[in-house]
TrEMBL record:
Annotated family: Belongs to the type III pantothenate kinase family.
Coiled coil ranges: 23-50
Reactions it catalyzes: (R)-pantothenate + ATP = (R)-4'-phosphopantothenate + ADP + H(+)
Cofactor binding comment, as recorded: A monovalent cation. Ammonium or potassium.
Transmembrane portions of the chain: none
CDD domains, A to Z: ASKHA_NBD_PanK-III (cd24015)
Pfam families named among the record's database cross-references: Pan_kinase (PF03309)
Full protein name: Type III pantothenate kinase
Subcellular location: Cytoplasm
Purpose of the protein: Catalyzes the phosphorylation of pantothenate (Pan), the first step in CoA biosynthesis.
List of catalytic residues: D96
Length: 244
């Protein structure tokens, strides 16, 4: 049994795996990390490994307290990954993006693969059919768009997600919802169209906190898998064990 932990920019997500099956999922805040992991390990006493990817400000030291109970693996750029990293600055590539790319490479062999993670940021990661990781894009996520409009202007209120009534927003609120939500959807559909036009033998993986909502709104038909990062952590850890 393996406990996977994804420390994102906003929240922490975790899942317990038995081989390739998820037994249970968890979401919690950063200040609850130690308490929650303790609880999970009490419930799943057969966990042999704790596997972490962190892009947040939580470092390896935060997990060392569990080392007397199980093996702790904190993914870094030094680990073995199943793709050829062609990013011009491989050391600054987010470890979450590396895990997503690894999961896509392992789960969907010999395809052109685009992973879209709609979380705090939207990240796009492209791995070609020869397993070259080429890069992608980073842009603000849905909630970040609402927050930045408020934070960096004098007059715009802080709104939370609401389905826009129309693309022609007829009030301040409707104009913001239209700009944020429609802009978010158009951006992603636009990127997908670009990739589709250039590549055949192509698969798209959509994940992150806003994936389910997006899957319903995109004109491109894509299935969302909110658990893809945690599944990828589990698979990349297996890959590491087999290839170290
Ligand atoms: N309880 C929640 N807290 C924050 N965001 C939420 C919540 N529920 C849904 N969301 C949506 O999820 C998005 C954030 O995604 P996610 O939870 O994957 O981010 P994260 O934990 O910061 O992870 P990452 O940094 O890997 O993107 C926000 O844009 C927001 O619209
Ligand atoms: C883009 C985020 C913030 C998404 O979580 C993360 O992957 C990150 O901090 N990346 C570093 C920059 C890069 O990936 O090139
Ligand atoms: K993200």
């Amino acid at each position: 049994m393996i406990l996977t932990v994804d420390v994102g920019n906003t929240r922490i997500k975790a899942a317990v795996f038995e081989e390739n099956n998820v037994l249970e999922n968890f979401v919690f805040e950063k200040n609850e990390l130690e308490k929650k992991i303790k609880k999970i390990l009490e419930k799943f006493q057969n966990c042999s490994d704790l596997v972490v990817a962190s892009v947040g400000n939580i470092e390896k030291e935060s997990f060392l307290t569990f080392e007397n109970r199980l093996n702790v693996h904190f993914f870094t750029h030094e680990d073995v990954f199943p793709f050829h990293n062609q990013y011009a600055t491989p050391k600054t590539l987010g470890i979450d993006r590396m895990i997503l790319a690894a999961g896509a490479t392992l789960q969907f062999p010999k395809k052109n693969r685009l992973v879209i993670d709609a979380g705090t940021c939207i990240t796009y990661d492209f791995i070609d059919e020869n397993d070259n990781y080429l890069g992608g894009a980073i842009s603000p996520g849905l909630r970040l768009r609402y927050e930045s409009l408020h934070q960096f202007t004098a007059k715009l209120p802080l709104l939370t997600f609401e389905e826009p009534e129309n693309y022609v927003g007829n009030s301040t609120k409707q104009a913001i919802h239209s700009g944020v939500v429609n802009g978010f959807v158009y951006e992603i559909d636009g990127f997908i169209d670009e990739y589709r036009a250039e590549f055949s033998n192509f698969i798209i993986i959509l994940t992150g906190g806003d994936a389910e909502f997006l899957a319903k709104r995109l004109k491109n038909t894509i299935f969302a898998n909110s658990n893809f990062l945690l599944e990828s952590l589990n698979q990349t850890f297996q890959y590491k064990i087999d290839n170290d």
